[in-house]
Amino acid sequence: MKVEEIAAPELVPFVPHEIIIQPNQSWLRLDWGQLWEFRDLLGLLVHREFASKYKQTILGPAWFVLQPLMTSVVMTIFFGRVAKVPTDGIPPMLFYLCNQLSWNYLATNLQTGGAIFMNNAALFGKVYFPRLVVPISLVLSNLFACVFQLGCFLLIYLGYVLLVPGIQGLHLTLAVLLLPLLFLLTGLLSLGVCLWMSALTAKYRDLNQVLQLIVQLWMFASPVIYPLSKFPIKWRWLAELNPMTAILEAFRICLLGTGTLTAESMSMSICGTLLMLLTGILLFQRTERTFIDTV
Fold first, then answer.
1. What's the rounded Cα separation, in Å, for the pair 138 and 41?
2. From the DSSP assignment, how many helices (H) and strands (E) are in the chain?
3. Which residue has the higher pLDDT, 293 or 265?
């Protein structure tokens, strides 16, 4: 019998390694490295939110397109035909469909992420991970719906250009390349508001009902139904305090070639978005320490 020699496995030097979990003593500090370590979890949550939203539905992801399309048709009939609301010479259907791109993104983020602590209390109470991963995943998953809606808008836009004679001023320019930045700005603004509302609803649950009213009032305070050019000039500064005003006007400039936008209003929108986001992160981190005792 032949006996083969078996080489002994190489010994791997022992390297001491330990993970220390300790509370963050300062709610002014954000651990960006920890967020990056949990990027795989972020991807799983994005897939879960996107897949579960329209699971066991008849039309599935088609609702991404049908919802803004039907809303634009209703607005065209009542505001464009009945109320005769001006749209700066743009066909009402294109005008309202363009506005729905950014506004629906904001509204959907607020409706799904306005009560993060309440909706995920069971998950947060079992395992530790950076709580900011959940609201970020909601904002990213809702961004996929905007891609479908943008494709629907471009198809209808092309149909107007090719099939409807006599339409002037419809043209795409290089400004369309700024759309990713506008979607990013809308996402950051909605994320900041979601963090604020989540921190508040963790203690005051009835604010979750007020959120629906806030979204509706915010829509009428933003140039979604009407263009900013029809707003009284002496009160236009008040409309520009709304961060969504400049974003909506910028979307129309990029996609429809018309809009009322100044550098000052865009700067105010960016500053307001960053202020809302930073204060929202700080309040969210402060609330996540003790929310499990109150939810």
1. 13
2. 12, 0
3. 265
Nearest to 189 by CA among 73, 71, 294, 110: 110
Chain segment 146-171, per-residue pLDDT in tens? 888 888 888 888 888 777 766 655 66
Residue 289 tokens, joined: 């320490």
Q: For residue range 216-257, what is the model confidence (pLDDT) as tens digits?
A: 899 998 999 988 888 888 888 888 899 999 999 999 988 888
Could you tell me the pTM of the whole model? 0.84
AA identity, residue 213? L
Q: How far is CA 275 from the centre of its chain?
A: 16
What does the chain come to in residues?
Answer: 295
- Sign of the alpha-carbon dihedral angle for 187, 193, 196, 201: negative
Q: Do 180 and 263 touch, CB atoms closer than 8 A?
A: no
What stretch of H or E contains 118? helix 116-119
DSSP state of 73: H
Separation of alpha carbons 295 and 62, rounded Å: 35
| C-alpha distance from residue 213 to each of 31, 75, 108, 218 (Å) | 34, 19, 14, 8
pLDDT higher than 80, residue 277: yes
Q: Give burial (CB, 10 Å; 0-12/13-18/19+) of 190.
A: buried
Query: Which residue type is seen at 272?
Result: G
86 within 8 A of 170, measured Cβ to Cβ: no
Query: Do residues 247 and 102 touch, judged by C-beta distance below 8 A?
Result: yes
* Amino acid occupying residue 256: L
**Which residue, among 192, 187, 188, 194, has the nearest Cα to 208 in the 3D structure?**
194
